[in-house]
Amino acid sequence: MHRITFVWIGSAVAAIALAGPLAIAADAPDRLLQAGAAMSNITPPLGEPIVGGWESPPATHIHDELNARCLVLDDGETTLAIVLCDNVGISRDILDAARALAEEATGIPGDHMLIASTHTHSATPARGMDRLATSGELTGYPKFLAGRIADGIARAARNRESARIGWGSVDVPGQVFNRRWFLKPETVLPNPFGGTDRVKMNPRRGDPDLLEPAGPTDPEVSILSVQSADGRPIALLANYSLHYVGGVPAGHVSADYFGVFASRIQELLGADGQDPPFVGILSNGTSGDVNNIDFRSPGERLAPYEKMRAVADEVAVAVSRAHLGIAFRDWVPLGAATRELTLAARVPNAEQIAYAREILDRPADAKPYHSHERIYAERVLRAAEGPVSVSILLQTLRIGDLGIAAIPFEVFAESGLEIKQRSPFNDSFTIELANGSYGYLPTPRQHELGGYETWLGTNRVEIQASEKIEDVIIDLFGELKRSFP
């Protein structure tokens, strides 16, 4: 058996056969795989705040509905649920509430449910001001959201039928660019704490002072496809390490390119008008330092939603072509492993607190050292009163010889690539902002360089957190690999 890797090059797909072992070499004739999928509408009402920028304007228009897209898999012994929600980031207490409701309704163990956010920047927030603190009693939109996620899992579970499953990947390099840049040494890069950084997030496009990106990108789109026994598409989950695309007018609610992809892949697979409906899903990979802006070019002005449609179409077309080469299996073993990891919180020191108070004491019309210094001064003071540690949930899933990692941060691409390289599975990928939303997760090297993603208030956990998380994920992968070699 050969593993097929598809490489997207312009308008062509090159298939490269790689010799290598396949852990599940044949279907198990005495076992049955079942799968079901469903969507729950999670669109907030008009008037709710939209988070994603420095301001949170009220929603004035629903451009496209937000959804929780749910897939349930059952190998006869183990049942898994994978849910992607059109939201910028959902706090753990909301997701824990959703799990409890779904477990009561379906019997699926809560720790077998992977629930993540896509990271659209055009949705109502579902996390508190301090990402390390719990929200308390759920009311309003958070309560509604938890219930609708649970509804989606329950409906997907009821839709289970005999199924076939397969996976693969395709590279789409033209839409991923590292957004953290080194500039010429004489360029001063102030930060909101009175100091300077060595790299800049989202520099001016075409800036002659640009030197090189501060990190890599991951162009791989991982694909998990599920069909009925007779070949009818049930669901397709793709994973791409690209931030939201944007281009959304103020006040609009939108699922961003994640939602456009879901509709486009349904069309390309010929799955329109089915009953039960096909569910297309695009999860966010490790994109904490990646967006789709080529900073070496001057760019062009585009109409609202134009760029996200172009990105989604390119990814969906590449996925649909790679899908033609996927080998489907009637049964594969499933597994889940989770672990709690306690991380120290970053707590501001006396000097940082004093500087924050000085900033807030200045007249509002005083010339700032940094445009966002007042925002970060407020964040520093909140952090000073916040938790000193946080327990996060790390999770891995096994689907045959495919491993899926779930991390509750915006993870940098280099961490995702490291996990793929160390994984014991032939294929693996990471879904970020899964089972919580705690902010950015720079590597220790990136912390040394500074920049937006490393600032206290954007990042709230210890500098070594990414390395500790990677080690736990690889350990959990090992447990799942050993459970069914």
Task: Tell me about this structure.
- This protein has nine helices and 23 strands.
- The longest helix is centred in the first third of the chain and has 19 residues, at 140-158.
- It is an alpha/beta fold and 485 residues long.
- Strands 1, 2, 3, 5, 6, 7, 8, 13, 14 and 16 form a ten-stranded mixed β-sheet that branches.
- The protein is 26% helix and 28% strand.
- Helix 1 (92-106) packs parallel to helix 2 and helix 3 crosses helix 4 (306-323).
Write the layout of secondary structure elements.
Elements: E1 2-9, E2 12-19, E3 34-41, E4 61-62, E5 67-74, E6 79-85, H1 92-106, E7 113-117, H2 140-158, E8 161-171, E9 177-178, E10 180-183, E11 199-201, E12 210-213, E13 220-228, E14 233-240, E15 252-253, H3 256-268, E16 279-284, E17 290-291, H4 306-323, E18 334-344, H5 350-361, H6 373-385, E19 389-399, E20 402-407, E21 410-411, H7 413-422, E22 427-432, E23 440-441, H8 444-449, H9 465-483
Parallel strand pairs: 1-8, 4-15, 6-7, 14-16, 20-22, 21-23
Antiparallel strand pairs: 1-2, 3-5, 3-8, 5-6, 8-13, 9-17, 10-11, 10-12, 13-14, 18-19, 19-20
